[in-house]
Structure formats: structure tokens, C-alpha cells
Specification:
The protein is of the alpha+beta class. The chain has three helices and nine strands.
Length: 208
Amino acid sequence: MQWWLNITWIITVFVNLSGLIWFVLGSTASFQRDLDLISTVLLVYLGIPTIILCGLSFYLLYKKWSPTKWWEAIGVSLLMIAMLFMTPQFYKNVDTSGWLTDKVQTDSIQQTSDHRFEYCIELINLFQKNSTARLYLKNINTLEEVRIPLELPTKEVVGITWSSVNYFIKLEPTADSNIYLLTTTEGLPLATEKYEINVQEGTAVRIK
């Protein structure tokens, strides 16, 4: 009986601890962003008790202590129930976007003045250390979609005001049918950036 109880106890500790690790990694996008308010509250109210209970369990198991009296067995059982009760909360409250999958936010779709392309800017993992940006293009005639990376300093963005319609960039044709000029607007809280977009080669060159 004691042997099976110890095995169950060990499994419970590792399950509970893995939930905490998953929560921390997910809430910080593998340490690419700071904890938000909700995650911080959950970490305080669930993470600290988890660390205490797991620490106590590791200590008792390391000392090879086993319950010998019925009330000790009940105490260990209640400890395991408490850890198992907290574990699902860790998994349920993790947002994997920006970590396991990219979190993509875009402004409103626009159309170039020559009616060749629909376009928008895609902001990926915004407010994280691994944030990037790219231009989304859709050829209206062929329906071909292209995404062109932009050397936009997205890490400098600390906040964006979103509304029902957002225009963060302007894409204008030039005399060369393959070259477009991209300019950021005031909607994007950065200094104005300009890029030369080659739609044929799928490249963007920053204009200084």
C-alpha cells in the first residue's frame, strides 16, 4: 500500500510541476514577453502553493518518509488532491499564441491605386522580443498571395490604438510596375518608415 502511495505521490508531483512550468513558458511565450496582470495573479495564487507543496513533497520523498498511520495517509492524499486540483488551471489559462504559434495582427485591407494588389501589414508577436512585421500582398487578378518581411522596428512599439478600421501603411505604385513605395502612417506609433517594395522579387528595401 505504501509503495503504491509513494508512486502515485511522485507522479502527482511531476504532473503538478509540469503544469507550472507549462504555465510560465506559455504566459511569457518562452520568456519573450512579460507576464500580464491575469497571469501574475494566477502565478501568485496557484504558483506559490504549488512550489510549497512540491517542495514539501520532494523533501519528504528524499528523506524516504512514508505514511505509517491512517491520518498521515489522509494528509498525503489531501496534499495530492490539492496539487491535482491546481494542475488543470495551469493548462487552461495558457495562451500559446506568440509561442507555439505566431500571433498575427493586421490593419485593414486596402487596395493600391492601380487596382493590382490588396495589401495590409501583418504585425507578428507584437510587444514581444521576437516581434516582426511583414507586408501582405494579394494579386487581384491571379489571387496569388505574397508576404514580404519588413525591417520594421516593432520592438519599439509599446502600444497601439485599435479601432474598427486601421490603416498603418500606404502602398503606392511608381513608374516601374514592379516597384511600389510603402510608407508607414501615424496609426503606427513609430517614426515614419519608407520601403521600396519589389513585388516581382518579393523584397523590401528600407529607404533611409
